[in-house]
Amino acid sequence: MSEHHHFIIYKPYGFLSQFITNQIKGGKHKLLGELYDFPEKTMAVGRLDVKSEGLLLLTTDGKVSDFITTRGGVEKEYYVQLDGAITTEAIKQLQSGVEIGFDGKKYMTKPCKVKIIDDPNLPERSKKIRDARHGPTPWISVILTEGKFRQVRKMTSAVGFPTLRLVRIRVGDILLGNMQVGEVREVEELL
Asked: Residue 98's CB: how many other CB atoms inside 10 A?
């Protein structure tokens, strides 16, 4: 039995992917510790921004976290709802890489897998999203092996189709599956 603890959670919209806050401007954000009584030294493996939802891995093992986020080339899959009917040309641009801003510099994203998908029938988000009466809101799947700050959102904006909703559904072989929003599961291992 490992001395480390590992968790998979369905991070709700509006939560920060952390346990403490440095007084973020604009009021109080919800933190992961509100979902479960996690052991000391638990850390998020990568992040999902406050507006993003879905699969988030947590661990007390820094080596596992480092492998997944920086060394392992681990795939992360997102379901992304877009503002506007995305074109074949825009999909091709996303697949081959687009220029986004990162850390005050221009960054060219690595090639990735992108395809249009049917509505994934996810749980309703706590904050309403504009509906199709205001124009098409299709879904795409985006599979990356990197993860810069707000990368998927920046990528879809760069090709003219801003992200309305972003849900991570897979990290490596770990799937969000039928988890409910806010659910926490302790697991034996993450790799």
From this structure: 19
Whether the pLDDT of residue 9 is over 90: the answer is: yes
Q: Show the tokens assigned to 152.
A: 């998927």
Coil, helix or strand at residue 32? helix
In tens, the pLDDT along 96-147 reads: 999 999 888 999 999 999 999 999 989 988 777 766 667 899 999 999 998 8
Which is catalytic among the residues 37, 49, 119, 173? 49
Q: What is the pTM of this model?
A: 0.92
Q: In the CATH scheme, what is the code of domain 76-171?
A: 3.30.70.1560
- Is 83 catalytic? The answer is no
CATH 3.30.70.580 fits 6-72+177-187, yes or no: yes
Instruction: Delimit the domains of the chain by residue range.
Output: 6-72+177-187, 76-171
